[in-house]
Amino acid sequence: MKKMVKEFKEFISKGNVIDLAVGVVIGGAFGSIVTSLVNDIMMPLIGVILGGINFSGLTFHVKDATIYYGLFLQQVVNFIIVAFCIFTLIKFMNKLNRKKEKEEQKEAPKKSDEVLLLEEIRDVLKKRK
Predict the structure, then answer these.
(1) What are 1-25's pLDDT values in tens digits?
(2) Is the pLDDT of residue 65 over 90?
(3) If phi over 0 gives left and psi between -120 and 50 gives alpha, with beta otherwise, what is residue 73?
């Protein structure tokens, strides 16, 4: 039992698990911000542009069932905004990573001609053996 508890502590304390937990919490908070942006700002503006339509009230009835397709449209807009934000963030992160890689490549010292020649000789000697 003690071994299992020890392994569990090691698993929990690893960076990936903690990073994942932080990502989930921040993702939830970000999701609520985007939901508010869509529901409280964008959809009313879109409704005004389209002639005063309230999307949350768009429904149709099939026998006893009510289909709320306006709420579905709000969620589609919500998804598009979240996807665009994530796309933009990843694009920015990739740009930073490329910059770092270029800087690291520039910082790598170049070998002198003598060192390159000695390495070639070493490789030829290794092949002969």
Answers:
(1) 888 888 887 777 776 777 778 888 8
(2) yes
(3) alpha
Is the pTM value of this prediction over 0.70?
Answer: no
Task: Write down the residue that tokens 């502590």 correspond to.
Answer: 9
DSSP 8-state class, residue 40: I
Positive or negative, the Cα torsion across 11, 17, 22, 24? Answer: negative
| Domain region containing 47 | 2-128
**Amino acid identity, residue 87?**
F
Per-residue pLDDT at 71? 87
CA atoms of 52 and 43, how far apart (whole Å): 10
Place of tokens 């309230």: 54
Domains of the chain: total:
1
CATH number at 41 reads: 1.10.1200.120
3-state secondary structure of 117: helix
